[in-house]
Amino acid sequence: MFKSIKKTSSTVKINRFPCIKCGGLLAFKPTTQHLICEYCGQENQIEQRFDEIQEYDFHQALIELAQAKPASEAAQIQCDACGAGFKFAGSVHAGECPFCGTTIVTSTAQTKPITPKSLLPCKINEQEAKQQFQRWLKGLWFAPNKVKKYADDDAKLLGVYIPYWTFDSSTETTYLGARGDVYYVNQQVQTVKAGQMISETRQVPQTRWTPTRGRVSRFFDDVLIGASKSLPRQILDQFEPWDLASLEPYNESYLSGFTSEYYQVNLVQGFDEAKRKMDNVIY
After folding, report:
1. Which pLDDT band, with edges at 50, 70 and 90, does 85 fall under?
2. Which of 22, 34, 133, 154 fits 43 for a cystine, CB–CB 3.0-4.6 Å?
3. Sign of CA dihedral 94, 96, 97, 102
């Protein structure tokens, strides 16, 4: 059950991850449990959390969402490093200062009434991502010139955390129809052979229809629905399956040095999409 809905605030809470050695800002190092300092190279251990990843009652969530205040506009962010003020795009809550490149991670609780409960930490570093990008390009019959130039220029690749909903549902489905069983009967037919009309016996298929009805029960576990509108639905679906067994309790340390999005598909829209997925399986 949901215990509370956090309200929005006019000020933005920025999470900072200073290096224990020099105080410099840190970025998550994929494939590890560390934040690495870009200034002195010190690896800072991410505190492990062993909280149970909770699942919440859908109907209770709808009640609390109805009582929550509407989300306000994205508030101004003040960069500590250069002093510049800016705003992230409406769907983004983690990224870089556009003026100095400093890592910025803001709290999701100030903008969205439902906050993330788990995440999948990035598993490959930028160099591996570039290698995979190059292999993908070489495998294409045709690629836009701008994409090729982007790869040739050795441009920086940016890791992005994308939001998803996951739904569990117990379903009961009744069906009504008819079962068709094919059987064969002998039938005399007239045919012409060698210029002569002859009669011969052939087996002709017939269908015996029997009314049928029944009930099907099915439990769906972790139906994933992409909650981003930055990418088309068909692309989001192609990312699956995700390794949900490796989910970590939500920890903003893993976002440092990456871009991260809020959900843009709300809870009701997400469940409607999940029902369509489940309907296809049931049918």
Report:
1. low
2. 34
3. positive
Query: What's the burial of 55, exposed, middle or buried (CB within 10 Å: 0-12/13-18/19+)?
Result: exposed
Tell the burial category of 251 from Cβ atoms under 10 Å away from its Cβ (0-12, 13-18, 19+): middle
Instruction: Round to the nearest angstrom and report the end-to-end CA distance of the chain.
Output: 31
- How far apart, in whole angstroms, are the C-alpha atoms of residue 276 and residue 282? 10
Residue 264 burial class via C-beta count within 10 angstroms: exposed 0-12, middle 13-18, buried 19 and up: middle
Does the model's pTM come out above 0.70? yes
Query: Which residue has 């224990």 as its token pair?
Result: 20
d(CA 203, CA 187): 6
Lowest mean pLDDT among 14-23, 27-36, 125-134: 14-23
Look up residue 254 and give its two tokens: 């893993």
pLDDT in tens, 215-272: 999 999 999 999 988 888 888 888 888 999 889 999 888 988 888 888 889 999 999 9
Task: State residue 252 phi and psi, 5-degree precision.
Answer: -65, -10
Burial annotation 65-93 (CB, 10 A radius, 16+ → b, else e): eeeeeeeeebbebebeeeeeeeebeebbb
Which residue, 226, 187, 216, is CA-closest to 204? 187
Q: Which among 222, 197, 6, 264 is positioned nearest to 115, based on CA atoms?
A: 6
Which candidate, 24, 41, 132, 151, places its Cα nearest to that of 81? Answer: 24
- Residue 254, SS3 per DSSP: helix
Report how many helices (DSSP H) and strands (DSSP E) the chain contains, helices first.
5, 14
